[in-house]
Design a protein that fits this description.
The structure holds three protein chains of three kinds. By secondary structure, chain A is of the alpha/beta class. Chain A has helices spanning 67-74, 96-100, 119-129, 134-148, 163-175, 193-210, 221-227, 245-251, 296-305, 318-337, and strands at residues 14-31, 35-52, 56-60, 82-87, 103-107, 181-185, 213-217, 230-235, 238-243, 255-262, 276-281, 284-290, 308-314. Chain A is globular. The chains are: A alpha/beta, B mainly alpha, C mainly alpha.
Chain lengths: 338, 266, 267
């Protein structure tokens, strides 16, 4: 893929600038038969951040926290109610079509591909719609097909692709025109483990090759762990955390679960605190341990003392981490004020 | 019978579901009223030219128009009932899940459709009918039993309507896309149910044929029952015959279609 | 504008090819459209099998109105008929996808689900128009000959404006999409019958408020040499293009306003 790094203009470090941006929705609710009550909902409440070119940022938060609203403002789909917003120096809602040439968007739940036509047809449309120069289109397509392993799928109608295949197809479609920033909304939702790994690997690769800025929303903590160097947490429309993922673990310690299958039934295995057995079901046992600690030590320890057949590690759900983070904050708040 | 309660619940759910589309209902009431206005004026001009056309007087013609608008959504004369959802489920293959449900496929969808029809009769049908009755001279019966017979005719009409649409929906098992058949059903439905012109105005042999088709059981027959223009027993027999024929055909096609699903592996 | 047309062609082309993948369905719908929209006209023929005149208009004259209305509507429906389904696009979130593409949204919405089977209605309207022009007793002049194509094209533009305004309305009220059927399908149905059939207030409404009368009633009154039920000056028969331009401008404005207040779905 040929980069456009040499042609960037006026990006003094900050590629995405968000300054005090808010989005207020008028909501009308029915009260009784005819009376309606109007009130305002602040979906995004004065958020500020900047993202430098080439950064990979995870954007997380509970459902309805304002994640998608932010992304939709960054892509120009929604007009902010207040504040200042620039992507590559462009005001998204004012110059949406101009910005579209410079951004790529992947909506996890809905495809941009043509359902009834072979995959390649959608790419040919992108070629013309984005006016991608022929040589660059061929070059980009070849590279994307290689990286995402799409070779055998190009002639297959999109409706016949599996979810994972379609997601890879969608990601390729979003990158054909050399966007400088790639937004992904839940890119791994519903995918199997192999597909997830593939998508994550690919994102790292694209970022390394072309310095594409990546902003992704997700529910899967592993997406963040394996792809992003920085994470932003939004809740109730406010940015409540912005920093490294390790920092987030400190703020809201989550627990991971090690599932071990032993040769036969045993009493709960002995493990060093704070790890502990939370469930036993025949030869299978569940061991909870802090998410910040590597699982390797625990695995070695169990393998030394018990006949281990199989094992797997369950990641904490991102919502669980955030929920715990709040629980801790709420617990701390009174002590701070007293 | 425990399963009767199940289908009753499905029907109630269908009713509630359509009742929750408030904006769509209001929009439908508006549209039906506008169409009623347009049709009433053309019928008035027509009956001005030929009073007693098709055996109706002017007031009966006007009543016929507003009855058509009243029943348009409830009987899904141009489609738009539960069959759209059924077609989508067949197209996407989700229908395979339905086959595992501990309920009869045809009865399940029939119950849902009757619930929908009940809501659309009340929510969408009544207002245009009242508007018509308020601003134009109509011919409504004063006898209570006529209204009871009318209600029976409506129920039979709903069964015939479902019978037609269920068959159309099942065709998607073979066609894979329902756009075409839906469209043919829509146009045939509007014309042969008598939405354009009452079927008793259709002349000669063409009229005979049109009045014998299943669509006649939906609007023309209930209208004639309401306005006392037909023998009630004969009307019910005609409607019941089509209802049985269509529902049995639906059942046969359904078993052929589900065999197909099993062969394809769901 | 050019950019919009180019985008429209691309999107429409993709949908045409998509439609061709279901061949049986395509053939059925094309045939269905061709023959079945004719049933509308059969309805009018049936009326005239019982009467000689409707509000003083003969069958060829009513056929002329019918054909002008259906042809204009058919053109508009071919070009922008899918705008009726914008509400479902908004509800399922796929409208967002159109907004992140580098081409005008209105062009994409217009070309959305484009289908050649809509040619059926147009062909049927054109055939009736041809017959009516021959069968009706018209005192042809050069201006009348010019007025007929002008009427059809302007009428189509007026209906396109109605479709666009309807699409803008759906941005606010996706669930109330059916309201626009009253103006699109209701409009084309009403215009098939002589204006004298309808109440004066209704005629005033569609002449001065929502000027559908300029699709065919007003110009047709001139072509057929019949008095228009409202006292209008003679030059008005040629005003359809101006009315159409005005409608399109207003609809465009409504669309822009609607798009700016688009709220998307979900969080």
């Amino acid at each position: 893929m040929s980069g456009r790094m040499g042609t960037t203009e006026g990006s003094e470090g900050a590629f995405i600038e968000v300054d005090g941006v808010e989005k207020v929705f008028d909501v009308r609710r029915r009260k009784g038969l005819l009376r309606r009550e109007r009130h305002q909902v602040r979906a995004v409440d004065s958020i500020s951040f900047t993202v430098a070119r080439g950064e990979m940022v995870g954007y997380i938060g509970p459902n309805g926290a304002g994640k998608s609203t932010t992304i939709k403002m960054l892509t120009g789909i929604l007009t902010p109610s207040g504040g200042r917003l620039r992507v590559a120096g462009i005001d998204p809602s004012r110059e949406r079509t101009r910005l579209a040439h410079r951004i790529g968007v992947v909506f996890g739940q809905r495809t941009t591909l043509w359902w009834d036509l072979p995959l390649i047809d959608s790419y040919k449309l992108m070629h013309r719609m984005y006016r991608i120069p022929d040589a660059r289109y061929r070059e980009n397509l070849a590279r994307l097909v290689e990286l995402l392993d799409l070779g055998d799928l190009l002639e297959v109608p999109v409706r016949q692709l599996s979810l994972g295949q379609r997601m890879r197809g969608d990601i390729a479609a979003a990158l054909l025109h050399d966007p400088e920033v790639l937004y992904l909304d839940e890119p791994t939702i519903g995918l199997d483990v192999v597909s997830k790994t593939r998508v994550r690997e690919f994102l790292r690769q694209v970022n390394a090759e072309r310095a594409t800025t990546v902003l992704l929303t997700t529910h899967d903590l592993q997406d963040i762990e394996q792809v992003c160097s920085r994470v932003m947490v939004i809740d109730h429309g406010r940015l409540v955390y912005d920093g490294a993922l390790a920092g987030l673990h400190e703020v809201g310690e989550g627990e991971r679960t090690l599932v071990v299958d032993l040769e036969r039934e045993f009493p709960p295995v002995e493990v060093p605190a704070p790890a502990r057995v939370v469930r036993v079901d025949g030869p299978r046992q569940w061991v909870a341990f802090p998410a910040s600690e590597p699982a390797a030590g625990l695995v070695t320890r169990i393998a030394e003392r018990y006949p281990l057949v199989d094992l797997s590690v369950r990641e904490p759900d991102i919502e669980a981490v955030i929920a715990q983070m709040y629980a801790e904050r709420a617990g701390r708040a009174p002590t701070q004020s007293s | 019978m425990g399963s009767a309660r199940l289908y009753l619940a499905v029907a109630a759910r269908g009713f509630r579901r359509y009742a929750s589309y408030r904006a769509a209902t209001a929009a439908g009431v508006f549209t039906n009223t506008v169409f009623g206005l347009i049709l009433v004026y053309t019928y008035l001009a027509l009956w001005d030219e030929r009073p007693d056309l098709g055996g109706y007087d002017q007031a009966q013609a006007v009543t016929y128009v507003w009855l058509g608008q009243c029943l348009f959504a409830a009987l899904a004369l141009q489609g738009g009932g539960v069959e759209t959802e059924l077609m989508e489920r067949i197209r996407t293959g989700e229908i395979a899940v339905d086959l595992y449900r501990p309920a009869d496929l045809q009865l399940w969808w029939l119950a849902g459709d009757l619930g929908r029809a009940a809501f659309q009769l009340l929510g969408r049908g009544v207002v245009p009918f009242l508007v018509g009755g308020l601003f134009f001279p109509t011919a409504l019966p004063t006898r209570f039993d006529t209204w009871v017979w009318f209600a029976v005719a409506l129920l039979l009409a709903a069964l015939v309507s479902f019978g037609i649409r269920y068959l159309v929906a099942l065709s998607v098992f073979w066609l894979l896309d329902g756009t075409g058949v839906s469209q043919v059903m829509m146009i045939l439905g509007v014309f042969f149910s008598g939405m354009v012109l009452p079927l008793n105005v259709f002349p000669g042999g063409f009229g005979e044929v049109a009045r014998a088709l299943p669509w006649a059981a939906q609007l023309q027959v209930p209208a004639d029952v309401l306005m006392g223009e037909t023998a009630v027993a004969g009307a019910f027999a005609f409607q019941a015959m089509w209802a049985v024929l269509l529902l049995v055909a639906g059942r046969l096609v359904q078993s052929a279609a589900t065999r197909r699903v099993v062969v394809q592996g769901g | 504008m050019l950019e919009g047309l180019r985008a429209y062609r691309m999107i429409a082309g993709m949908w045409v090819r998509s439609g061709m993948t279901y061949r049986v369905s395509f053939v059925v719908t094309l045939f269905g459209n061709l023959v079945m929209t004719g049933l509308d006209f059969v309805g009018i023929l049936l009326m005239f099998s019982q009467v000689d005149e409707l509000a003083g208009w003969s069958l060829p004259e009513v056929a002329f109105l019918y054909a002008a209305s259906v042809t204009s509507f058919g053109l508009a429906h071919l070009a922008s008929g899918s705008m009726q389904q914008l509400g479902s696009r908004i509800r399922d979130g796929s409208f967002d996808v159109l907004l992140v593409r580098p081409v005008p949204v209105l062009a994409q919405v217009g070309g959305d689900r484009f289908s050649l089977r809509r040619l059926g209605r147009l062909a049927q309207g054109g055939a009736v128009l041809g017959w009516a022009l021959v069968a009706a007793d018209i005192d042809w002049t050069v201006s009348k000959v010019l007025l007929v194509p002008l009427m059809v094209v302007s009428g189509a533009a007026i209906f396109v404006a109605v479709f666009v305004a309807g699409a803008a309305f759906q941005i606010y009220a996706q669930d109330a999409a059916e309201v626009q059927n009253a103006f699109t399908y209701g409009g084309t149905t009403m215009l098939q019958y002589p204006p004298a059939v309808f109440g004066k207030d209704l005629v005033r409404g569609v002449t001065f408020v929502l000027p559908l009368a300029f699709v065919n009633w007003v110009p047709a009154a001139h072509v057929l040499g019949r008095p228009y039920p409202l006292a209008l000056p003679g030059w008005v028969a040629f005003a359809s293009p101006l009315v159409a331009a005005g409608c399109c401008a207003l609809a465009g404005l409504a669309w822009r306003t609607g798009l700016r207040s688009y709220r998307s779905v979900g969080s």
